[in-house]
Here is the input.
Amino acid sequence: MKRMLLGRLAALVPTVLLASFVVFMLIQLAPGDPSITLAGENATAERIEEIRRSLGLDRSLIEQYLTWLSHAVRGDLGKSIITQESIAAAIGRTLPITLQLVFGALVVAIVFGVIAGVASARRADTATDAVIASVSSAGAAMPSFWLGLVLVSIFALGLDWLPATGFVSLAADPVRALRHLVLPSVALGAVGAAEIARQLRGVLIEILASDYIRTLRAKGLSESRIVWIHALRGAAVPLVTIIGLQVSRLLGATVVVEAVFGIQGIGTLVVSAANNRDYYVVEGVVVVMALIVILVNFAVDVSYRISDPRIR
Amino acid sequence: MTGLLQDGAMPAGPLLSVDALCVQFDLPGAKATLKAVDGVSFEIGRGEIFGLIGESGSGKSSVARAIMRLAPIAAGAITLAGTRLDQLQGRELRRHRRRVQMVFQDSSDSLDPRMTVRQAIAEPLRMQDAPPADAGGLVASLIQRVGLDESHLDRKPHTLSGGQKQRVNIARALALSPELLVCDEAVSALDVSVQAGIINLLLSLQQELGISVLFISHDLGVVAHLADRVGVMYLGRLAEVASAEALTSRPRHPYTEALLAAEPEPRPSTHRAARPPLIAGEVPSAANPPSGCRFRTRCRYVRERCAAEQPPLRPVDGGGLVACHFAEELVLEGRRA
Amino acid sequence: MMAERPALVVRNLEVSFLTVDGEVQAVRDVSFEVGRGEIVGLVGESGSGKSATALAIMGLLPVVSSRVRGSAMVSGVDMLALSPRQLARVRGRDMGMIFQEPMSALDPLFRIGDQIAETVRAHQRVSRRAAAARAVEILGEVGIPDAASRSRAYPHQLSGGMRQRVMIAMALVSEPAVLIADEPTTALDVTVQAQILGLLRRLSRDHGTAVVLITHDLGVVAETCSRIHVMYSGEIVEACGVDEALLAPEHPYTSALIQCIPRAGRHRQPLHSIPRRRGSSPDVRPSGCRFLPRCAHAAEICKAPQPLLDLGDRAVRCVRHDQLALPGAVERVPQ
Amino acid sequence: EAGGEIKVGVTLAPTSFDPIVGTSGGDAMSLYPLYDRLINFDPETLAPAPGLATAWTYTEPQVLTLTLREGVTFQDGTPFDAAAVKFNLDRAISLPKSTVKTDLGGINSVEVVSPREVKINLNKPDAALVLTLADRAGMMVSPAAVEKWGDAYGQHPVGTGPFNFVEYAPGDRMVVAKNANYWQKDQPSLDRITFRYFTDQQTATNALKARETDLQLNVPAADVAPLKAVSDLDVVSRASLLTEGCYFNFSREPFSNVVARQAIASAIDRQALSNLLTFGLAVPTSQVFPNGYWATDANLANPFPFDAAKAKALLAEAGHPNGLEIKGIAFQGTSEVRKAQIIQEQLKAVGVNMTLDVTDIPTAAKSFFTDKTYDMICSSWSGRPDPSQTAESLFSPKSFFNAGGYLAPGMDVALSEASSAQDPSKRAAAFGKVSALNQQYVIWLPLLSQPNNTAIYKNIHGLVPNFYGKIDVSFLSRD
Amino acid sequence: MSGGGVLRNWLLSDGRSRLAASFLLAVAILAIAAPLVARYSPTAQNAMPFTGISWDHWLGTDDLGRDVWARLVYGARASLLAAFIAVGIAVGIGVPIGLVAGFRGGWVDAVLMRIVDTFLSFPGIILAIAITAVLGSGLMNAMVAVGIVFSPSIARLMRGQVLVTRERGYVEAAVSFGSPSWWIVVRHIVPNAIQPVVIQATFMLGLAVLAEASLSFVGLGVQYPNPSFGVMLRSAAQFTSLNPGGVYPPGLAIALLVLAFNALGDSLRDVLSPATSTRRRIGRRANRRPAPNPEPNGASPRDN
Ligand SMILES: Nc1ncnc2c1ncn2[C@@H]1O[C@H](COP(=O)(O)OP(=O)(O)OP(=O)(O)O)[C@@H](O)[C@H]1O
Ligand SMILES: Nc1ncnc2c1ncn2[C@@H]1O[C@H](COP(=O)(O)OP(=O)(O)OP(=O)(O)O)[C@@H](O)[C@H]1O
Ligand SMILES: [Mg+2]
Ligand SMILES: [Mg+2]
Here is the structure.
């Protein structure tokens, strides 16, 4: 098992490399140039050229990529061209913020999604089911930033229950952190909750109609034990798959939602870096995000093996 | 060459001969391979129905699929009227495929749900290098041949019953006028009365068209009813080959005896000798078969030699072939009566 | 045998399903009883309502899309009158059930020992440890070698026969009065089938369990059961002792069913095959004898509704039963 | 009551805490609490006022002498003296990354005369230098800190200002704490200021409404009315140097032709623009400077007021009787894009079809000013402390912002007059001439004079708005 | 019938998908007939900003005094077109890749899937932003980017389907009577494998509408001054203080469009997959028509 896991981890390396290469090419192919930004408002063409040279941007793309890569594998993601901040530090500063957001959103998505999914599967084709289906369809149909706007105007500005903007680290002050986390988590997590509810409903209906559930009923188990212990365990593999996909979606979606809530996470970092053509920041952030997604997928894979003894 | 058929009208020699066939599968994950079929040899004469019986996992389907060139052949030869089927490739293989056709167990899975019955039966015809001029007429006659009528031609498979679907499968297999028809558990999924209808159909087709049939089933009753000769498979090897009559009345292999004893018979208790099951346990894993005689772990006559030495399939007096060291010594019971 | 109260008494069971095409009756007027230690066979072709009958008795039919009427008394309690909650309590305790596919019928994600122990704890207040011990004990009883270590196996690690033994162990662990076995051996090899049927016979005898054995295989019934109930199109058409049915069937369907099976000594002879029904729809059922469209002995009188005629030790749903001399499983000496 | 903390909402995060490295005009608001400038300006007139330099005189036309304030130390204890000033100015001129090199281009050398006196030798007379020192070039950083941190100075700023740098979470917030040794008596009043930076304008407004900030700088016109409606909240509006206007590409047809530019000038309805863009808050103008400013000539009439018919006629005269296709570009940002769309629509009405690309500011600026691949960009001019800086930037053919290096007849004379005259009234007259020439030749097309709006809760006192439009929050106090 | 029953019937009956289909049809007609129904040019700044609802401006005006109804109608055009382009590209790229990978297997499969995995490992919107940066702004470019971003999941889905279909009995049967590979692919594998892809593509139409909104929100994919739902929502979002109601017309338009595509996808799935459809239909029928009403000559699963 351990050997197999290590082998699978090693197989991820080419994916990561390819990912880093794709991003590197993409951002460098994009028009624009960080030297323009650096040169300031009224710079001459010569000045810009000089900066380009000093940044090494005049070399071939492959050469630049290999240089970047040789540093990156040693853990050195370089410095921001624009702010001179170490990119590792910038990611270290913003990533926890975004991850806390993603975590909050996941909690919302899983808790609401699983409850709704189970409820509608148990009452398939009843009014409850219909109501849940409608609400979750609506949840999945709303752009998360719009939901964010609406939530802020109701719960922060209107009712004044929760803060409208900002971020507090859970480690620093859990209570305030949670208050700040609620609205963005709901805005981000709603789509995930809807998705989980929808998919879980389908999976559970199938499982609840399966032979082994019939056996459990024939054994005289209580319905709640059947649903929450056996059926849900059976749904674990698809459920974990959906959750894994949600992580990737959420990492992206924070880009938009962070702006609405004035949170300086990794999404904001990457968007402003992209605007400034701060190549190495974009590269660093996207590679880290890709790495997270790849690791999450790996974890999902591993959890299949844990949750289903048939997969070895 | 002493063929089993004495009739001089037929060309000499068997239609199909399978010689020392091995079929291997790579097991996913582990680096091991699984010998699903391990050195099986038999012949099917022209116009003969050859039955193959054995428990689940004994390699019956693998033999059939190897003959159809659908399973990987690791070793051995498959010769159809002088052509080495196992060595054909590409276009050549496609040309020869029509000579052997198959009826699969799962009648609905082997029909494309999107094709009408007409399209399904016509498909093999279209695939030929020179499609027959009157394909439409041929399809109509085929559907009637299998006991359905032309109104069924424009139906989709899901509107047909299991028996009807199996009839369509048979019609499609016959479309290319094959020399050999392979039926892998073709009636096992059907109700007895439906099964009876299909068996009758196969019998009449075989008699009228004179084609040879490889008939695979796990139901000894059905095989014995239908086949001229029967091969009994156990864990990838043939345990015994004999005429249906000899096999049931006088089995020569302990495994055959056990199968006969386990066969539930719909007879009143007054007409049936109650016998305890002669066999315990289940078929060992094909990935890790016992040494020597593969049946020895479940055999009630087992001796030391069985573990050490693999018994070859050899002729015994009475005309059959048996793979048992002690076939001559053992006195085995046939069908309970 | 009749002195004792039967373990299971089913009276006038009716099952219908709500489908796209409206309400379809799958089981009609089914009554039978099974005594302690008795094995009763329920046979019939696919779709004849065997499983529907079994599931109705167990209360396992989908609540939304099915309707069940009639009564099924187990130890004096009518199963069909219980609330879902009460039903859950008696299921597994007073009645057990085993199914055709031992692979899909076991939860693939739980160890078999735990699945059995869970059943124990659902009905008895015992410790986890005691339940686990009981699981090992019953696994040994159904013939699983090395039960203690095998109880930690997952279903996929067992062979088909072993799984079916586990299913039986699970159904019998609370020593129910009634066991319903719905095609328990159909998916198994004949050699294993013989073992499982032997096991069922032994357990029924030793524990006095009343068994309803559902199968489409007359051979299995012949070897295992004392009585047989032949179902056709949702109705019981003939009910009698097994030997009587095989020797001298009185309903044309029973006879036809017997004739379909290949038999020794008739090599290559055409088999009897029940003719196809004329009307193609299964739902347009004749108001008279349901077998009429396929019956070789149909007469005008068969178009009238057919009651189940009680002939003492036998019941037949055929008005012409005494006019016909139907062939059985063995050549009969003409009377 | 002195003390307390305020939270300030800003939409422009600082690009650097090293004043001469930063690239954005918005940096100033974050830098003011940390740094004093050599020269201050009068908030009303933008006339120079004493800062770290208590006096400034042109001892010769090309020598500016500064007298420095006594008793000032940097926050790290380094004394503030003439050596420090020389250090700062030399650094601003020589540091490769310096963005004020051009502004200080006139400086030849800096001499320490005495600890309290510095002499700045110029290449040529430069009236703008004094007020240049009122901006980022005049912000004094501690030489010891620069020594200590080197390239990383930007992360560890030390000035002489009223507040010490505490921390900065990039793009999110900056915290500064009271400088107890500040040279100005009893100042500052606040203990602490937190700047919160918002990328999204509505988010900033929401934070203010939710009282997560106490005041918000640079409130956009759209939010003025809604914020005014919030009780406890004041919106302070003040005319500023920020002027909306359009730049032309003189290097190619059609705008190498002055008549075509005049046609564009006539095509734009400034009042309509103000109504849509700023909900009527901005004041239509045809000069680069706002009304009431000393360099503005109140008597100058616009020769090309809005007149669609005339615009069409001018277009025809310029050789485009059947209308005109031009390539426009706009900076990213709500207001910029809206402005561009309004002008696009107004131009359409006279037969000028403008395509519109939108990109980030540096890229768009390079495309327009350096590569000259577009015909027109409508943006704004944020103003400079000294009007000469503005005039040179917009009208001098050598300026970056003069795409194509266009020189209007007589403009060179007017410009040098404006920058070299010592007498303010003479300078004012020279600027009048510059403006008149600009109106006539439509070099930079002024459209609206924007007020600067600050929203502030009523319990915060001491807000001093200014013409420059960059608010210093250091000396506020709260109840 | 209980109140719950009525609600359930309304929501779960085919009416839901019928409603969705009618809604989409209506939107499509509005979009096509935009010049006829809009009353104003979508770019004309012919009123004060935020006039509110009036007879002249049914949905009021936006921040530039443009008629919101006109922009909504023209925006539907852009958004629908954008969705179809994105999904078309996703299907156009994904299906062939999945088909080749699944059918050829071996190293071809390994290489293609590694590439697909790579693209799947980027958060979608980030990748879309990067691609849009390369292609340049503008709605069409953005939707090409979205299409590229969507294509790997289509490829994966298709591959999985092909792998399953390849093992089906009818494919084996086709091999056994000598059909060439191209025939098997075209005639058996594609038609039988494509169904989930079609369903997924329907859901993707909704996702594409959402993606358009998100990209517009970060300022990409906008073609000034022409409207799309995303552009409208973005600009309305900039003025929530002044005109809080402004986000509703485009926001609801997006939500309804997505809802409609999802409902369509759901019902498509129900119709196409027998397992859920019968269940759902039985439940419904049970409530609506208790009396048996056998259909004549219904196909039977039994015979002989
Ligand atoms: N494609 C395959 N890959 C790996 N192993 C296979 C494959 N096909 C068959 N096997 C294995 O080969 C052995 C023989 O299988 P085969 O299907 O030929 O048996 P069979 O006699 O037809 O059994 P059944 O009665 O269940 O159909 C079994 O152990 C089976 O698991
Ligand atoms: N859930 C259901 N909904 C609708 N009809 C059903 C349902 N379950 C069974 N039926 C129908 O009820 C009839 C009886 O089915 P049942 O499963 O009891 O047959 P069976 O005798 O067990 O057949 P088999 O031998 O195939 O298991 C059939 O016509 C079947 O189609
Ligand atoms: Mg097989
Ligand atoms: Mg059944």
